[in-house]
Design goal:
The protein is built from eleven helices and seven strands. About 35% of the residues are buried.
């Protein structure tokens, strides 16, 4: 906004000396169990109008499974062929530990793997991705790679589906993912202020989980800065057919605000800055 030096000095006054979520991440890991996994899955299911299919005969793939909650929830609900992949070995080990506790080793497989490195020797009926697409590098390539391992299942009403939930997108009000890094939340801080200043603050104040990142793309989980309009273009280029596309469903609890959001999202110049979270179901042509 004012240049990297002034931005740094201004934002430094507003930063916490210790990021309050550092300990909360550890608490989340300690509290991870089947109840928490099912609660997150059920929330996702509600936001997609209960259209996530549960079918024991189908092969499921979760891209960016993290600690494995969604994959394990699918297995708990009766799915017998679930694979979760994530590029972070730390998360994969947590997922495997919870899988053992739940005794779901025969239903769920976890692999440490980047989505771009998926082999071509397997196909899946349903591919899901939850809170991942805003983090993955080269999101257009990621979606094309997903398309490459998705099985066209013409004999089934629910096969050949891609089910996504992601956000906040980088250009939305709090898409920088610096939740509670500052003493009060600053909307659009990632695009209004110098990235160099923000990364410097992050290195100095985000303790004890600092990763010395010099850009949003370099942080541990990565932020690819994909715009909502770019995502829509990627899907159109691949040729997927839209079955559900719900933007900002968290606003449904406030009907007037929900209607206003849907109205403003129709304005091309505003769309990228107001699309916070995206929930979608696509199918192959």
């Amino acid at each position: 906004m004012f240049g990297k030096t002034i931005d740094y000095r201004l934002l430094r006054l507003l930063a916490h000396g210790r990021h309050p979520e550092a300990e909360e991440l550890r608490q989340l890991e300690r509290d991870l169990n089947i109840e928490s996994a099912m609660a997150r899955f059920e929330k996702w299911q509600r936001r997609l109008d209960n259209e996530i299919p549960i079918d024991p005969a189908m092969r499921y793939l979760e891209v960016g499974c993290g600690m494995g909650e969604m994959s394990l929830a699918l297995a708990q609900l009766g799915c017998r062929h679930v694979t979760g992949i994530d590029k972070d070995p730390y998360y994969i080990e947590i997922a495997k530990g919870l899988r053992q506790e739940m005794q779901l080793q025969d239903k769920v497989t976890f692999e440490c793997m980047n989505v771009h490195d998926m082999p071509n020797d397997k196909e899946y009926d349903i591919i899901i991705s939850h809170e991942t697409l805003e983090h993955v590098e080269r999101p257009a390539d990621c979606l094309r790679r997903i398309d490459g391992v998705l099985k066209s299942n013409k004999s089934s009403r629910v096969g050949g589906r891609i089910i996504l939930a992601f956000g906040p997108l980088f250009h939305s009000p709090f898409g920088d993912h610096l939740n509670r890094f500052f003493r009060f939340r600053i909307p659009w801080v990632g695009i209004l202020f110098s990235e160099e200043a923000l990364m410097r603050l992050r290195r100095e104040f985000w303790q004890p989980v600092a990763d010395n990142a010099e850009s949003f793309e370099d942080i541990r989980e990565g932020l690819n800065k994909m715009k909502f309009s770019e995502f829509l273009r990627y899907v159109e280029e691949i040729g997927w057919i839209t079955e559900r596309l719900i933007v900002n469903p968290q606003l449904k609890r406030w009907p007037a605000l929900w209607r206003l959001s849907n109205l403003l999202l129709r304005v091309p110049l505003l769309r990228d800055y107001l699309a916070v979270s995206v929930y979608a179901i696509y199918r192959l042509p």
